């Protein structure tokens, strides 16, 4: 192979690596946005239910089925889900920063 063919091939490999880094960062950013939105929805529902009496009925979507519960039944599950989403969000942010640092080192 001539020197120019090796150079072109190397350039294509570098471009592919760069594209992979960018795509990974974009996917992580998308997942972070989704989790942030879901966490905000949980917070909104929790803030709405807090002042209500525990015996008041409310509805919750479980696997696509709307079920009737009381505020007392729903609050613990929502709190647990909300805390879990916060942990997932923290982990995704760590992954994003790590991926970004790897890309910067690679550059």
Explain the overall architecture.
This protein has 107 residues and is mainly alpha-helical. It is built from 2 helices and 2 strands; from the N terminus they run H-E-E-H. The protein has a two-stranded antiparallel ribbon with strand order 1-2. A hairpin with a 2-residue loop joins strand 1 and strand 2. It starts with a helix and ends with a helix.
What is the helix content? over 70%
Which structural category do the helix and sheet elements fall into? mainly alpha
SSE run: HEEH
How many strands, what sense, and barrel or not for the largest sheet? 2 strands, antiparallel
Radius of gyration: 23 Å
- Mean pLDDT, rounded to whole units? 91
Biggest sheet, strands in spatial order? 1-2
Strand content: 5-15%
* Uncertain regions spanning at least 5 consecutive residues: none
E-strand count? 2
Q: What distance separates the N and C termini?
A: 27 Å
Please, how many helices? 2
